[in-house]
Amino acid sequence: MSAHKATGDRIITLPFMLLVAVWLTGSMFGLQRFILDGMGSVSNLNGGYTWGLWVVYDVVIGTAFACGGYALAITVYVMNRGKYHPLMRPAILTSLLGYALGGFGAFFDMGRFWQFYEIFLPWNWNFNSVMLEVGLCVATYILVLVIEFSPAVLERLGLSGLKRALDKVLFLFIALGILLPTMHQSSLGSLLIAMGHKVDPLWQTMQFQPLLAIISSLIMGFSIVIFEASLTTAGMKQPSEAKLLRGLGRIILWLLAGFLIIRFAVLAAQGKLGLIFAGNFSSAVFVIETVLFIVPLVLLSSASLRRNSGLLLVAAVSMLFAGAAYRFDAFLVTYNPGNGYSYFPSVPEIMITLSIIALELMLYLIFVKRLPVLPRAEHA
Amino acid sequence: MKRREFLKTALGGSAGVLCGGGLAEARPNLEPAPEAVGMLFDATLCVGCKACVAKCKEVNGMPPTVLNGEPQWDSAQDLSGETLNVIKIYTEGKGSTKDMVKDGFAFEKRSCMHCVDPGCVSACPCTAMRRDPITGIVTHHPDACIGCRNCMVACPYNVPQFEYNKVFGQIHKCQLCNQAGVERIDKGQMTGCAEACPTGATLFGSRKALLAEAKRRMALKAGDTYSYPRGDVRKPDSMHEKKVPVYQQHIWGETEAGGTNVLHISAIPFDKLDMPPLGSRSAASISEGVQHTLYSYLALPAIALAGLAFAVKKNTDDEGEGDGS
Fold first, then answer.
1. Which of A151, A339, B121, B125 is the right S-S partner for A131, CB 3.0 to 4.6 Å?
2. pLDDT averaged over chain A?
3. For residue B10, what pLDDT is reported?
């Protein structure tokens, strides 16, 4: 029933070699971090800002960018919009790569990486810890994504018997693939609760952190599906999915409205609306972030605007920036541990994050060129 | 129609899991441990000699801090992977008068506050941070630690510190001189810093006795003479008489974020001494309230999974029929 096929294009291209170069440069700093001098020699992490670019981008934002598979699975399998099925496999692939490299980023940031397995030992588990939920849940979800993606590999290898057997139980893994991101994407927000006063009041919504985190991760998940499909259409000369994407735009509209209403209602209930107009750094950051959420809300609200695939892409990009900003702002930009600490990522730190992104893109290109991932033309 | 109902149940289950987080009732703050021990730091008594900084390094086997190429036992600037206790200086204007906000100076000790409801213990996924059930001492156990450093972000005081300069580093924090191999409290001794303090600015004792002493000082009249104890507040090594300063009527750690076992009093307001803006509620109590509402016995996730599995099975079986609803 394969509705997908490998593009079969050449793998070694100029852009690909550029990605390899970025990846190798970052990897050299990686060697320095793991073998020579430790984290301090390549990063500006300090006693007050101990979670920097690696945790906040690679894990907190990177996994939200990887929510395409999650968002689409809800649409296809829970809301039963089967027509979106052709988008499913590429979305699962980006989710798998995003999460696997998020896990790699977490390992990179792990101060005591040589005993990472301690978090998997049940006698160590602290059930009060949000981080325990995040760690175990993300690890499990990576395995689930491998299984969800495996039909593409089995198809390629021609193991149709195995694929049929897998198809019988796949529904369980798809269900897990919806439950697990719901759990850990909300928990990534819950991590902020324990940080208390260090999180700026405009972002410290306490009990509402998980709810805002999960809605924004869905927004980012749907946006990445639109973004990815638009790019593959343009860059890899794939058939256009414009009609499908427009439908997704309608779903996002509701999520965006929900996010903004809840956020402002919570700020009002907590008596913090005045802080938006304080005219300080935090209020400026908040306004910029909110504009990034409102632009797509306006663009998507009219059916005629949604029909313009260029504007749809603009809306998707704005939402990706909005969701990333919401996380960056809370965890880093307005985060203030006090005691005179400050932080800006070092060049090696940035290079390492770029090398992880480069690796992700390289793997994506290899996979879609060699495995049946992208939808066939008849769905155009 | 039937399917519509099942879908509603599945969606409702998932939505319930999430909204529970918003409505979660936080648990109350933890209570002080039954035989909680701690310290009382009276900033007005501290003369900035830093004997406590050097003694701390000696007792805990920490290396000297290298400043200008020279090893220094008492000149650490801040808490770090090699320093568990520092004396910081407050100055304003000319910085000429001790314990005055304007044109004054003061000393402030920074070390683990041994929170009654510690954020680090609550946040640690591997139980590598523990609160002793009897003494309330917050200890660290690197054997179980993966180095995620959530304890550092969850500490309102930025106390736990990681050794960034080592490939195989670990978290360090004050363990009230009672960690395995030191065990001064278990042996009936006091903390190194309290023992070394010549003026009694750092006092050791039970939280109860220290809080009583702090309250006594709050009630003193400025300018009167008071006999200040040194060492252990319950059995002082010696006493010395000194004129009572103008105390801020604020015992830091009596209630802050659920209270601390290390209490501070001062003549300078604590926000000027760089203490964090804390309410009486511990962040841990709210965070745990959310986690336990959502994940208690994994009941909600299990219900949601059942609902989702049913919906997915139904909709994948229907595949090819196209758009269901």
1. B125
2. 91
3. 52
CATH number of the domain where residue A99 is located: 1.20.1630
Six-digit token string for B156: 């309102």
B23 has a pLDDT exceeding 90: no
A344 in any annotated domain: no
pLDDT tens-digit map of A332-353:
999 999 999 999 999 999 999 9
Name the DSSP letter for residue B298: G
Residue of B153, B159, B174 to mutate when probing chain A, most A C-beta within 10 A = B153
Instruction: Check B162 against A50: CB less than 8 A apart.
Output: yes
If you average pLDDT over residues B144-151, what whole number do you get?
A: 97
Of B21, B126, B311, the CB nearest to A124: B126
Q: What is the pLDDT of residue A228?
A: 84
- Residue A60 CB burial class (10 angstroms; 0-12, 13-18, ≥19): buried
Backbone φ and ψ of B41, nearest 5°: -105, 115
CB A369 within 8 A of CB A9: yes
Q: Which of A224-233, B76-85, B202-211 has the lowest mean pLDDT?
A: A224-233
Contact A172 B309 (CB under 8 A): yes
SS (H, E, C) chain A: CCCEECCCCCCCCHHHHHHHHHHHHHHHHHHHHHHHCCHHHCCCCCCCCCCCHHHHHHHHHHHHHCCHHHHHHHHHHHCCCHHHHHHHHHHHHHHHHHHHHHHHHHHHHCCCHHHHHHHHCHHHCCCCCHHHHHHHHHHHHHHHHHHHHHHHHHHHHCCHHHHHHHHHHHHHHHHHHHHHHHHHHHHHHHHHHHCHHHCCCCCCCHHHHHHHHHHHHHHHHHHHHHHHHHHHHHHCCCCCCHHHHHHHHHHHHHHHHHHHHHHHHHHHHCCCHHHHHCCCHHHHHHHHHHHHHHHHHHHHHCHHHHCCHHHHHHHHHHHHHHHHHHHHHHHHHCCCCCCCCCCCCCHHHHHHHHHHHHHHHHHHHHHHHHCCCEECHHHC
**What pLDDT, in 10s, does the model give residues A156-176?**
898 888 988 998 899 999 999
- Return residues 144-203 of B near A (CB < 8 Å): 144-150, 152-154, 156, 158, 161-171
Confidence of residue A375 (pLDDT cuts 50, 70, 90): confident
Domain that holds residue A160: 49-337
Buried b (16+ CB within 10 A) or exposed e, B218-242: eeeeeeeeeebbbbbbeebeeeeee
CA distance B140 to B227: 37
- How close B106 gets to chain A, by Cα (Å)? 16
CATH class for the region spanning B37-280: alpha beta
- Whether A363 is covered by a domain: the verdict is no
Full-prediction pTM beyond 0.80? yes
Burial of A350 (0-12, 13-18, 19+ CB in 10 A): middle
Domain ranges across chain B? 2-28+285-317, 37-280
The shortest C-alpha distance from B44 to chain A (Å) reads: 21
A366 domain residue, yes or no: no
Is A166 inside any structural domain? Answer: yes
Q: Residue B322 has what pLDDT?
A: 38
Q: What distance in Å separates the CA atoms of residue A27 and residue B76, rounded to the nearest whole number?
A: 34
As a whole number of angstroms, the distance between CA A47 and CA A81 comes to: 49
If DSSP codes are grouped into helix, strand and coil, which group holds residue B292?
helix
Domain count, chain A: 1
Residue numbers of B between 261 and 300 with CB closer than 8 Å to A: 274, 276-278, 283-284, 286-292, 294-295
Distance CA A292, CA A289 (A): 5
